[in-house]
Amino acid sequence: MCAEKRVADMVNGDLRDQIAQLEVEIEQLAETLEKCRKAMLISQVAIGAAAIWILAYLVGIVGLVPTALVAAISVVIGGVVIFGSNASTSKRAAAAMKDAETLRGELIDKIDPRTVSRGNQLIF
User: 69, 5 in Cβ contact below 8 A?
Assistant: First the structure.
């Protein structure tokens, strides 16, 4: 094996390790995005339920229950905070995921994969 090929294999091996690390990072970011989406959905449901209860009290459908009113107000405030926090985390994770995917694509291009066909199958 010539020295140039050996160096190229070492560089490609390092690139493959970097690509594998980026793929792990991308998977973790996807999980983060999913968790944020779920938290945002739950907070929206909680805000809606608490707002409906507050409106029912204001219209006179339910009587004054001070503890329930304070709890409903707290749920609205807490839901807004949780929603906002997860929305900003989601935006950062999406940006990081986009950057990681771009870098992964650039690293894959550096490997210069060749297309080999076997019958009707393409093998990279």
Answer: no
CA neighbor of 30 nearest in space, from 118, 101, 123, 107: 101
For residue 72, give the amino acid letter. Answer: A
Q: Where are the domains of the chain?
A: 3-110
Q: In this structure, what token pair is assigned to residue 33?
A: 């995005």
CA distance 93 to 101: 12
User: 40: which 2 tokens?
Assistant: 């945002």
- Cβ partners under 8 Å of residue 37, min gap 6: 90
Encoded tokens for 79: 């839901």
Q: Are 111 and 12 in contact (CB under 8 A)?
A: yes
pLDDT in tens, 58-83: 999 998 889 999 999 999 999 999 99
User: How far apart (Å, rounded) are the C-alpha atoms in residues 99 and 20?
Assistant: 15
> CA 99, 104, 108 angle in degrees (round to 5)?
150
Residues 96, 105: Cα–Cα separation, whole Å? 14
pTM of the shown model:
0.71
At 112 the three-state DSSP class reads coil
